[in-house]
Amino acid sequence: LSLKFGDIGNLKGLVIRFLLTTSYYQLSVQNWFSLHRLQLLYNHSIQATFNATGICAPASYSYHCEHVSSLQRYDALLIPSSANDLSKLWEVTFIDFQIQGFNIREGHFAYAKDCASFFSPAILMGLVMSLILLLVLVYALHMLIHLKSLDGHYECKASPAYFAQMKDSDMGDEKEPLRSSGNESYELRNQQFCKIYI
Question: Which positions fall inside the V-type proton ATPase subunit S1 luminal domain (predicted)?
Fold first, then answer.
C-alpha cells in the first residue's frame, strides 16, 4: 500500500510504502492482517525501513491508533530495521492513524480495532476504586454478622425510686411504715426497673 504525495513542494518525490501481510489464526478462526514493514522512498530509492510491531487487526476490520511513531514517547511501534541504515536519521509519526489493507467496501473503513491498552490509567483507577468499595462492603457485612443480640443481655434490679399507680386496696400490702424523727414515711417494695447492657 503506497502513499504518494504528488506535487507537494519538497515532498514531490516522497513515497511511504506500507507492506501488509495476512495470516489465518486457528485460535480466532479468522484471517488477520498486520503491518509488517514501513518504507520511506525518495526519488525511487529506499531511504529508511521500519519494522512495525503490534499493528494488526482482523482482516474484516481496520486498525486505528492515536499515534504510530518511531519515537519512544509514543511507545515506538515503528522500529528501525537495522542499526546500519539511515532509519535512525528519520523520525516518523502518524497522528490519528487508521489503516485497512483488505476487504475494503465502498471506499470506507470498516469497524476499527483500536490500539488502546486494556489497562489505561482511567481503567486502573476504576478497578482500584471498585476494590476499595468492595472491601468496605465486606467489612460492613462482617460487622452485621457478628452483631450481638440485645435479648439475652439484661438484668432487673429493685429500685426504691420507681412509683407505679396502684389501687387503694393493694396499698396496705405494698407499704411498710418507717419510723424516723416523728414523721411517717413509706418505702415501696417489689418495684423493679431494668438495666440493659450493650
Answer: 1-102
| Spatial separation of the C-alpha atoms in residues 28 and 39, rounded to whole Å | 30
Angle 131-135-136 (CA atoms, 0-180°, nearest 5)?
A: 120
pLDDT of 99-128, one tens digit each?
A: 887 777 787 888 888 887 666 677 888 899
Same domain, 36 and 77: yes
Residues 100 and 7 in one domain: yes
How many structural domains are present in the chain? 2
Helices (H), the chain: 121-145, 168-174
Grid cell for residue 150: 440485645
Domain annotation covers residue 190? no
Asked, for residue 169, whether it belongs to a domain, the answer is no
Q: Can you list the alpha helix ranges (DSSP code H) found in 17-149?
A: 121-145
Enclosing domain of residue 126:
117-155
108 and 124 assigned to the same domain: no
Taking only the tens place, the pLDDT of each residue in 26-43 is: 777 788 888 888 988 888
Instruction: Check whether residue 101 and residue 53 sit in a common domain.
Output: yes
Instruction: Write out the three cell numbers for 135.
Output: 472491601
The alpha carbons of the chain give a radius of gyration, in whole angstroms, of: 43
CB 21 within 8 A of CB 32: no
- Cell output for 188: 415501696
Which grid cell sits at 117?
491498552
**Are 17 and 41 in contact, with CB atoms under 8 Å apart?**
yes
